[in-house]
Amino acid sequence: MTSKKTPVPQAGKPTFTSDNWRFLFKWLFIIGGVTAGVTNALAYQPDYLIWTLMVVGIIVGLFYFDSDDLINIGLRYVIFGAVANAVGGFYKIGSYIGAFFMGFFYYLGPVVLTVVVMYFVKKYLLNKE
Question: How many domains does the chain have?
Fold first, then answer.
């Protein structure tokens, strides 16, 4: 009977800076979305938080999402909007769930807008043909 081989970790494997930044922007996206959802569900929306989440959404749109993947981010935006409107009718808890998804939907707005602008800039302004 053969024994199961465990992978040996490679010592001194180089880490790439772009991977570290991508990891940071992924968590920035997740934390921003959850913050927007929770604060919208609790109806706590101070101006500084709204502006901060808009700036975070633009930064995440610039550096985390690929503008060539515009269809997928657009689908996420549409799905969050549809779910936010659909779950509002659930008994007692639906208004909170719907408000959470609507907050995440509002947070995705600047992200999607930034990705759309990046897509058109790359396609029409930076296209060297």
Answer: 1
pLDDT of 5 above 70: no
**Does some domain include residue 74?**
yes
> Model-level pTM?
0.76
Q: What is the pLDDT of residues 28-78, one digit of tens each?
A: 999 999 999 999 989 888 889 999 999 999 999 999 988 888 899 889 899
As a whole number of angstroms, the distance between CA 35 and CA 7 comes to 38
Using 50, 70 and 90 to split pLDDT, how confident is the model at 93?
Answer: confident
31 falls within a domain: yes
Question: Which domain does 52 fall in, by range?
Answer: 22-125
Burial class for 75, CB neighbours closer than 10 Å (0-12, 13-18, 19+): exposed
Give the CA-trace dihedral at 124, 112, 29, 46, to 10 degrees. 130
Residue type (1 letter), 44: Y
Report if residue 16 sits inside a domain: no
The C-alpha angle with vertex 74 and arms to 48 and 62, in degrees rounded to 5, equals 55
